[in-house]
Specification:
297 residues; alpha+beta; 10 helices; 4 strands; 61% helix
Amino acid sequence: MGDVFDELVSEARLIEEIGPWPFISRKTFLRPDGVRVVLHSRHHRKGLFLPEPGEFLLTMATLRRCLWMPGRLNWWIGSIFALGSILFALGAALSLSPTLARDWSLDTTAVNAIYFAGSIPFTTAGYLQLFQTANAPSFSSLQRSASRRFTLFGWRPSEIGWLSCALQFVGTLLFNLNTFDAMLPGLDWLRQDWLIWAPDFGGSILFLVSGYLAFVETSHAHGAWQPTSLSWWVTLVNLLGCVGFMISAVFAFVPSQSPGFPTISVGFTLIGALGFLVGSLLMLPEAALEPSQPDPQ
């Protein structure tokens, strides 16, 4: 955050800390000139501009700018998540419409390959998000590291943003595993459960916990209504996508004596993918609110 960050740390006095227990997601400082400065952990770690309270008006200039910002990591994260979501939604739509799949000359293995292809952007964006968080100035101490060396993963379990990103990244790796295994031919029900359902269920749990942590990070409580905050909408829609994936995983279990509920499972996969798609697209105008500035009040 440059000179503004250094000035804040050296001269301002911390007067308030709040967040969903046991985390701190918002800090308020009082500068010597009497101006209050508010830092939110999400915006702090992503280098995002924090609008004034109640500001949620996106200008046409902002919307045009968010379409192409290749110099900003936040734009790449949102765009790559959106690509993965589109591929997951496409795979689900083809699974729900065998006629459409046949028209495109796609068998079950080819449709499953679309899911696997979608899991790669998820992992890529998930890692970029974790890398960004691991190398951001610590929100717990608000201390700049003396070293300029990058860290690949970091270790900040006391910070809600890092924990959310880390859990999501591990979840994407499990989705890589389960979507790859789904392409294997001739699996009986037991192997399907061990090789496909188990990593799917584990990844969905991690996504759900990660999505909840991201949501309460923007809410600064374990539940809040903040419809004027763009970041709140980003995390809310993503959380709904995580719920869709979780329900899909529950119904994806294959019993030994019945086919289970594949249609319900795939339907909620589609809902989860669409939730992630909307949340990813909302990350683009959120990224367009840069450059980073603390919020003076």
